[in-house]
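Quick illustration for those who missed Monday's session on complexes.
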Amino acid sequence: MGGFALLTCIAVLAFVCKEAQLADPLLLSRVLTVSFIAATCFLLVKHFIKVMVPLFLRANMCGRDINKRGTPAGERPIPEPLGLIPAAVYILVLCALHLVGDHNGDARLYTAAMACVTFMTLLGFADDVLDLKWRYKLVLPFIASMPLLVNYTGVTTVVMPPASGRLVDLGLGYYLYMSLLSIFCTNAINIYAGINGLEAGQSVVIGIFVLIHNALNINPTVPKDNIELLRAHHAFSMDMMIPFVAVTLGLLVHNWYPSRVFVGDTFCYFAGMTFAMAAILGHYALTLLLFFLPQIFNFLYSVPQLFGIVPCPRHRLPTFNQETGKLEAVKSHLNLVNLVLWITGPMTERALCVLLLVLQVVCCCGGLAVRGFVLTLISK
Ligand code: UD1
Ligand code: MG
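Prediction with uridine-diphosphate-N-acetylglucosamine bound:
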């Protein structure tokens, strides 16, 4: 699985490089530099997680693998939240890129985005340590998005429908839209979780599709107004996404079934905030939501439990059947993980994770197709 993920990333990167070269040779050298930094980060994260595991265990920062309950693996403490390592490496990369990048000519917004990702990581870590209640989790991303909100002086228009090139001015509503996107992306990843590899896996898949979307936009097939600005927005997003996918892959190596580390809320919030910032400053938030289809469905399906209409247990995971070694759906746990299990019947945790990631890929392909369809309709 690891080899397959790595090969896919390399193939996507080759596609990004090809599009970058067609757009502007200078952009190609930027992509290659960022990719080189990202590859180094992958190795750093992979290595440092191994180094940090004993420290987390010594500090008693660990969780139990609920989906292996009743087996020796279920009794073993699993260090958590190791999402701290990719987040720390990633923030360092953002600092380094700040020195060399042009950030659409707006360094202030870039710094604000960096502050949001950093603040969100800190609050995620606090959540992991303090185990906050659901109602507090919901507001943390709003607090973390403050650096961007108070610094934002850019456009308040969105492209509606996605990819159409038609601008709709939201005015003050744009600020609400930015904080809602941050709240949604962070929590959406955090509640679509609990299966070895799922949190980091879905983030890698979404990150890859964001990169494909960026590559398609630096070199659009249909004529667009203000092509230079469009290119700058998507190049900026690529700067954020290439290292993000790399550090997340470094985490996934250790988090894949059977998990040797848990990612924690630290990672879920860090990943969600990174997507939100890249999409806000890259001006493609609606397209990003097309890549979040499983998460949107999971959220809507969870609403009765999230808002207390139906009792919500601390964990809404499937049950592990010790005799068969498979996970079984719990009907009263209203989330996509249990719904898929209920439809397919019992399966192993690993197979379930693979299936959910395939579903993510299919939905992201669907998202790209919808975007392409809208684009052709508009350009006619
Ligand atoms: C969210 C979900 C909760 C789900 C949990 C799993 C909602 C409202 N909350 O809560 O239903 O159970 O995520 O992450 O939907 N764990 C595993 N295997 C894994 C990953 C995590 O057993 O592969 C368990 C471990 O005990 C770990 C714990 O989940 O310690 C982490 O849960 P936490 O992130 O604190 O849960 P929430 O984000 O509050
Ligand atoms: Mg969580």
